[in-house]
Design goal:
The chain has helices spanning 31-40, 129-141, 148-155, 157-177, 180-200, 206-216, and strands at 11-17, 23-29, 44-47, 52-55, 64-71, 78-84. The protein is an alpha+beta fold. 21% of the residues are buried.
Length: 221
């Protein structure tokens, strides 16, 4: 069976984490993007806005290594199962599908005319560990004077590991003898330094979630 591309020569590609099963993103491929994906083992897509091919993660380092590509019963959409090296979303979220539609969302009429575009309420302030990791990576790649994160990378891996140990000890103290807010603050400090440690070792937070997903799988019968 041949794949069915649309009248623009594109086919939608749903990208899924091969380990956790999480849907990461939706993008589009043309025949060339699919060929390059098969050839390189990394995802390539066609940008409809820029009208050009792009290799996911070529700039950010968040590449997606392809395990397999499936197509649906109508041969007009793809499922690309990958092992991601970092977050899929440009916001730093692991998946582009991190927001939930609720009763506060105003859904526009698909048949409405000009001037009646769908509107949504302002997004809540949202900051994730993935976004923090992206900031850490930026400080590493583009160090600026006075940056604490940049100073940690300059000090090297032993200093970073030492800080993780110190912060872990402070978490223990807060857990046993201090108020809840102090515990939250100390855990936040520990999480930050752990992310710095991962970055220093060339690892992404997704390596942790992948390992947790592996442990969560039921044992073979």
């Amino acid at each position: 069976m041949e794949l069915k591309y649309d009248d623009q020569g594109l086919i939608p590609a749903i990208v899924q984490d091969a380990d956790s099963g999480q849907v990461l993103m939706l993008a589009y491929m043309n025949a060339e993007a699919l060929s390059k994906t098969l050839e390189t083992g990394q995802t390539w897509f066609w940008s409809r806005s820029r009208q050009t091919l792009w290799n996911k993660g070529a700039t950010s380092g968040n590449v997606q290594s392809v395990e397999e590509i499936r197509y649906d019963c109508d041969a007009d959409s793809l499922l690309v199962r990958v092992h991601p090296a970092g977050p899929a979303c440009h916001t730093g979220e692991g998946s582009c599908f991190y927001r939930v539609i609720n009763q506060n969302l105003v859904v526009g009429d698909a048949g409405a005319g000009p001037g009646t575009a769908p509107t949504t309420p302002p997004m809540e302030d949202h900051f994730s560990l993935q976004q923090l990791y992206q900031v850490i990576q930026d400080r590493r790649q583009n160090p600026s004077p006075g940056s604490y994160t940049a100073s940690l990378f300059d000090a090297g891996l032993p200093k970073i590991a030492q800080k993780v140990g110190e912060e872990a000890a402070e978490v223990l103290v807060a857990a046993l003898a201090q108020e809840d807010q102090r515990l939250v603050e100390e855990v936040a400090d520990l999480a930050y330094h752990v992310l710095v440690l991962l970055a220093a070792r060339g690892l992404a937070p997704s390596a942790i979630t992948t390992e947790l997903a592996r442990r969560h799988r039921p044992p073979p019968e």
